[in-house]
Design goal:
single chain, five-stranded mixed beta sheet, globular
Length: 244
């Protein structure tokens, strides 16, 4: 926790002062990060693995029903997501990812690339190695990371209120033990069951604008005590008690 706070304070001081120094692509770049360091400014028309890394972190800043692709192509939708991220954190919302944007991202993530308010342990209470699900362990863990960044965006949009994850990745054995559906997205690592300091309906309603394509909540069978969010290839929302 101390490291997280120290990094956040340092980053905010750099942004506020307009002095962001470090390594990579010359004067003005943000300091190297333990997780991932961007080495160039990104804008529409650029492509590469560094764009994909950026997309993972801004995919939660989209419009209702939208899902941002992790395709490494910096198109108009990625620029719009970056602009929303920038606006949410008080940066110049120009849709161009440069030193100030990276500094903010660095302040929001830990050395294992997870956002500061969520962890792999929260997304996997099933086993230690992410094995036994519908996809490879590496894919399940990667999907969980993408889910956490969407939840970080959602948490901030809600006023930085705590969000608790009661269930995330499940192997087939873990899923069977809790009576989960045989087609559950939990088997893929991209699902999370949520509770929090805001109502379950508020969580379900807010999730619509943070890149989740599957949202199930109060009024849907067996979902009156939590809100379920996931990235499903076949979008489906149902929380009748919440007007969804």
């Amino acid at each position: 926790m101390f490291v997280r706070v120290a990094r956040l304070v340092a980053s905010l001081v750099m942004i506020a002062s307009g002095v962001v120094v470090g390594v990579g692509f010359g004067a003005g770049t943000a300091a190297a990060d333990d997780c991932y360091t961007w080495g160039r400014t990104l804008s529409q028309g650029t492509s590469g693995s560094d764009v994909t890394q950026l997309q993972i972190r801004v995919a939660g800043w989209v419009t209702s029903g939208e899902r941002l692709s992790y395709d490494g192509q910096y198109g108009a939708r990625t620029a719009a997501a970056v602009a929303k991220f920038q606006s949410a954190y008080g940066l110049t919302a120009d849709g161009v990812a440069g030193p100030a944007t990276y500094a903010k991202i660095y302040a929001l993530q830990d050395a294992d690339c997870t956002p500061v308010h969520f962890s792999y342990a929260e997304l996997n209470k099933c086993n230690a190695d992410w094995s036994g699900g519908a996809v490879s362990a590496a894919t399940a863990k990667g999907n969980a990371l993408k889910t956490m960044w969407k939840l970080e965006a959602m948490r901030h949009a809600l006023g930085d209120v705590p969000i608790t994850i009661s269930s995330g990745f499940r192997s087939y054995a873990c899923n069977s033990a809790v009576g989960g559906s045989s087609t559950s997205r939990h088997l893929y690592g991209d699902a999370a069951d949520l509770t929090g300091s805001v109502s379950l309906c508020r969580l379900a309603q807010q999730a619509r604008t943070h890149g989740f394509s599957e949202i199930l909540g109060p009024g849907y069978p067996d979902h009156d005590d939590h809100t379920h969010v996931a990235l499903d290839p076949s979008p489906y929302w149902s929380a009748p008690a919440c007007g969804i």
